[in-house]
């Protein structure tokens, strides 16, 4: 290898974990302990050789993390020499992600959700119980430890814990109880997870290939389907742009669902993983893609297995690879997602160029959300016009909404675009207790008040009303909820998830948290309110990506409506 | 015989502050501003490195864009209507400088930063006065690293990596406000891949990276730029011909830099050019 490492060597287990992904090294250049005869006569190098395996960096870090529970200096050196990647850069990538640990950790770590919905309901009790029975967060107890986590995407269940287990599969339990978490941290055996029987036919995929790429794109354009991930860009326009590009190109399913209060993509994968892979294959076929990627958040292990099963169940004759995130909300941003897949820190890129011009590996790329791709099969089956009959003029089709918090039956609801927040809350069984606040669109969305409960939830109506549809999250809070704590948690979320690249977001999210802290504790001044407004404005106007641009929305709306500091 | 003709880039018309100017397609808005003597502040941008889009101080208004646009990286297509000074821009730049000032020690920031902070009436304590957090890293006889002064502009990482030295000893580690420049596992520079070219020092805008000779003199209170002269010469260690600017105080070399606009090295040197001056001032 051309890069210098320290003399820290991997243990045999660490070496085996990396080799299970990359195979045995074939020369001392690529990490073998012994020199082979060929090593005396060859040198592997050049830019292509040096850069070709960079994209395997995050999978290699995962391999060690999964097997050992953390990535030691020796393990990092071995990964660096195998790929090769400079050790400083490999370390930079490892430290970017919450789920990759670079300090010694006990073999079992429970990440317990204390985000917006969980912390205002059963999750708060769970955390209190964990503190009294296991001990404080971040303190090892035997071979286990628990820490708090951002939203795990199980909001309708009230509490959730994602548990990493060295040498065994990571699992999520939701709703989580203190005894279940404690048992797993103690090393309790988990029943192996059943693999559901999946349909083996993909009729829409077959039909799409009979139609031909142009006809598929025409139907997708005729359907008017807009992206369901939050940005609402017309999918057909993206597809057409990439279809017209020459050379290698890629399609990506964005399954990095991490917006607090959002769990619809998890629901889609749980109930119909075939539709997701079928939709991605149709997209790849229509645009003439070289390959498809599914980028799934690192905490969705069960869903990752479901997608893996789906790919095994059907023969798509299209190369699709699943890539696992590692605990970083920002990687749901499409350009950060590209960097993550390519093996770099999951930081966004300045746009333009847009992904349709320069995406993964600098090539034209379509990125669509899980829910968007899952709808493609139906568009092929029934035609774009049939899809466009549903919903409104600019927001066609059906939409999944995630209603959580203080409602009688929280869950995922599939409805026509145009339903109002009030109707969605009623679909979810109505408010439990006295309604205090509703947050739509997730942490990047905004709190709504009358008369906005009756605004049709379409892209155009919410835009005109100045409220957020976003990913379709509707979080309901009753009078028992401490809205100061909710607001603080939102500010904390963004300060934790800011990638740190651009100054308005890196410093702005931290300042927002400090100011909200002062407001909820009653130590604020008139200047603080002005500063909070100004920081929000600068984040929105000058940040490099959507994270910073939306990080002030919910807090600003909470203050405008008077949800923060009410009890003083 | 095949003659290679390099086509001159197509010139297009753009509008800056109401004035129509011509600029090559693919050049940046910042290029066009500077060519037309329109001053725009920058922090992370450096002419010899690729834009990093981090500081956002160079933002301008471009008609049709929802948000402000970083002028250092936005390439001109033609027909853009650009505004480089407005209340919106002033407010953003002032707040950005105030964000820096509350989180970074800007006491040794470059003259441009000082000038722009003055221009925008920056209140450095608006978000609270800066509080020292980290110890200065002194791990060898050549450099010091004082990351309380680091603005995370990424220039040093780029210069250490593919943009100059290809050594890859440092990178940004962590995330958000916990981000910092580091070697792997924070090992010392002598243990790391560092080859002591000092190109990271050469590009640092805030004095976070510094010659140890300068640091020691500042600590002793003897550093005095008014008493320094700069002698431009050519490095004699090899045949490349890098330009050296020897900063001399009291007849001793106290620092070596290299001009950015010198097309042999673009301001980058190696350990010999940067630090190989000791023999000049050995007593015997």
CATH C-level name of the largest domain in chain A: Alpha Beta
What is the CATH topology of the largest domain in chain A?
A: Rossmann fold
Oligomer description: heterodimer
Count the DSSP helices of chain B.
7
Structure characterization notes:
The complex is a heterodimer of chains A (568) and B (284). Chain A has 568 residues and is of the alpha/beta class. Chain A folds into five domains: 12-94, no CATH class; 108-185, 3-Layer(aba) Sandwich (Glutaredoxin), CATH 3.40.30.10; 203-389, NADH-ubiquinone oxidoreductase 51kDa subunit (Rossmann fold, 3-Layer(aba) Sandwich), CATH 3.40.50.11540; 398-478, Ubiquitin-like (UB roll); 483-561, NADH-ubiquinone oxidoreductase 51kDa subunit, iron-sulphur binding domain (de novo design (two linked rop proteins)). Helices cover 43% and strands 13% of the residues of chain A. Chain A contains 24 helices and 13 strands. Chain A has helices at residues 12-22, 46-51, 57-68, 73-82, 87-94, 116-119, 122-133, 178-185, 203-211, 213-223, 235-243, 264-271, 273-287, 301-313, 334-342, 370-382, 384-389, 421-427, 459-465, 483-497, 503-521, 526-542, 546-550, 553-561; strands at 108-113, 144-149, 161-165, 168-173, 250-255, 291-296, 320-324, 365-369, 398-405, 411-416, 435-440, 446-448, 473-478. In chain A, the strands form three sheets. Chain A has a five-stranded mixed β-sheet with strand order 10-9-13-11-12, with helices on both faces. In chain A, strands 2-1-3-4 form a four-stranded mixed β-sheet, with helices on one face. In chain A, strands 7-6-5-8 form a four-stranded parallel β-sheet, sandwiched between helices. Chain B folds into two domains: 11-85, Ubiquitin-like (UB roll) (Roll); 137-281, Alpha-Beta Plaits (2-Layer Sandwich), CATH 3.30.70.20. Chain B has seven helices and 13 strands. The longest helix of chain B is centred in the middle third of the chain and has 17 residues, at 87-103. In chain B, strands 2-1-5-3-4 form a five-stranded mixed β-sheet, with helices on both faces. In chain B, strands 6-7-10 form a three-stranded antiparallel β-sheet. A three-stranded antiparallel β-sheet of chain B has the order 11-12-13. The termini of chain B are far apart. The mean pLDDT of chain B is 95. Chain B is of the alpha+beta class. In chain B, strand 6 and strand 7 (143-145) form a beta hairpin. Chains A and B meet through helix 5, helix 20, helix 21 and helix 22 of A and helix 2 and strand 8 of B.
């Amino acid at each position: 290898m051309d890069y210098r490492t320290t003399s820290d060597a991997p243990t045999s287990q660490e070496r085996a974990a990396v080799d299970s992904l990359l195979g045995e090294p074939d020369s001392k250049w690529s990490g073998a302990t012994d020199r082979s005869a060929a090593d005396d006569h060859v040198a592997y190098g050049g830019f292509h050789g040096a850069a070709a395996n960079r994209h395997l960096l995050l999978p290699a870090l995962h391999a060690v993390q999964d097997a050992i529970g953390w990535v030691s200096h020796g393990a990092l050196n071995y990964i660096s020499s195998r790929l090769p990647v400079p050790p400083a850069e490999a370390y930079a990538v490892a430290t970017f992600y919450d789920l990759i640990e670079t300090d010694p950790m006990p073999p079992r770590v429970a990440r317990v959700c204390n985000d917006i919905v969980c912390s205002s309901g059963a999750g708060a009790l769970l955390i209190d119980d964990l503190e009294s029975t296991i001990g404080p967060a971040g303190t090892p107890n035997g071979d286990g430890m628990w820490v708090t986590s951002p939203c795990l995407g199980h909001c309708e269940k009230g509490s959730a814990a994602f548990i990493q287990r060295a040498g065994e599969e990571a699992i999520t339990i939701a709703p989580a109880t203190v005894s279940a978490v404690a048992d797993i941290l103690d090393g309790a055996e988990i029943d192996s997870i059943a693999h559901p029987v999946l349909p083996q036919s993909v009729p829409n995929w077959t039909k799409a290939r009979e139609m031909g790429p142009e006809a598929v794109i025409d139907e997708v354009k005729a359907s008017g389907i807009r992206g369901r991930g939050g940005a609402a860009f017309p999918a057909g326009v993206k597809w057409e742009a990439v279809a017209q590009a020459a050379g290698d190109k890629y399609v990506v399913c964005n399954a990095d669902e991490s917006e607090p209060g959002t769990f619809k993509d998890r629901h889609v994968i749980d109930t119909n993983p075939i539709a997701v892979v079928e939709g991605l294959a149709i997209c790849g076929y229509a645009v003439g893609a070289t390959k498809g990627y599914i980028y799934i958040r690192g905490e969705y292990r069960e869903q990752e297995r479901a997608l893996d099963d789906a790919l095994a169940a059907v023969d798509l004759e299209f190369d699709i690879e699943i890539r696992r995130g590692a605990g970083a909300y920002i990687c749901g941003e499409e350009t950060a997602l590209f960097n993550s897949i390519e093996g770099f820190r999951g930081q966004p890129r300045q746009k333009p160029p847009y992904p349709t011009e320069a995406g993964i590996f600098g090539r034209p790329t379509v990125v669509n959300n899980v829910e968007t791709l899952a709808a493609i099969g139906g568009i092929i089956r029934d035609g774009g016009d049939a899809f466009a009959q549903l919903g409104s003029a600019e927001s066609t089709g059906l939409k999944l909404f995630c209603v959580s918090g203080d409602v009688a039956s929280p869950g995922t609801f599939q409805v026509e675009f145009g339903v109002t927040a009030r109707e969605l809350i009623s679909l979810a069984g109505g408010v439990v207790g006295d309604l205090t606040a509703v947050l739509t669109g997730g942490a990047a969305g905004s709190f709504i008040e009358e008369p906005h409960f009756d605004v049709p939830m379409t892209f155009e109506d919410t835009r005109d009303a100045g409220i957020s549809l976003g990913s379709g999250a509707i979080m309901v809070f009753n009078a028992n909820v401490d809205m100061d704590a909710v607001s603080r948690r939102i500010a904390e979320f963004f300060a934790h998830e800011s990638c740190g690249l651009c100054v308005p977001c890196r410093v702005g999210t931290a300042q927002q948290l400090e100011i909200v802290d002062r407001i909820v504790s009653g130590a604020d001044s008139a200047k603080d309110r002005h500063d909070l407004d100004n920081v929000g404005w600068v984040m929105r106007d000058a940040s490099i990506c959507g994270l910073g641009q939306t990080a002030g929305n919910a807090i600003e709306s909470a203050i405008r409506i008077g949800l923060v500091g009410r009890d003083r | 015989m095949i003659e290679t003709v390099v086509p001159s880039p197509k010139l297009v018309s753009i509008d800056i502050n109401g004035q129509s100017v011509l600029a090559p397609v693919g050049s940046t808005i910042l290029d066009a501003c500077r060519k037309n003597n329109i001053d725009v502040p920058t922090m992370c941008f450096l002419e010899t490195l690729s834009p990093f889009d981090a500081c956002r101080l160079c933002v301008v208004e471009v008609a049709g864009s929802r948000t402000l646009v970083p002028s250092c990286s936005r390439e001109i297509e033609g027909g853009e209507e650009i505004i480089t000074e407005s209340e919106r821009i002033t407010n953003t730049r002032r707040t950005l400088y105030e964000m820096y000032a509350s989180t970074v020690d800007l006491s040794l920031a470059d003259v441009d930063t000082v000038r722009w902070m003055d221009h925008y009436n920056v209140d450095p304590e608006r978000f609270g006065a800066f509080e020292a957090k980290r110890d200065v890293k002194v791990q060898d006889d050549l450099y010091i690293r004082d990351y309380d002064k680091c603005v995370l502009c990424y220039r040093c990482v780029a210069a250490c990596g593919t943009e100059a030295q290809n050594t890859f000893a440092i990178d940004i580690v962590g995330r958000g406000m916990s981000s910092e420049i580091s070697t792997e596992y924070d090992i010392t520079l002598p243990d790391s891949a560092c080859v002591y070219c000092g190109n990271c020092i050469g590009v640092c805008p805030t004095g976070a990276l510094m010659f140890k000779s300068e640091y020691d003199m500042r600590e002793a209170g003897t550093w005095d730029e008014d008493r320094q002269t700069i002698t431009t010469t050519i490095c004699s260690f090899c045949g490349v011909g890098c330009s050296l600017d020897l900063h001399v105080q009291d007849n001793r070399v106290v620092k070596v830099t290299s001009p950015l606009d010198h097309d042999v090295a673009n301001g980058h040197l190696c350990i010999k050019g940067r630090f190989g001056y000791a023999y000049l001032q050995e007593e015997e």
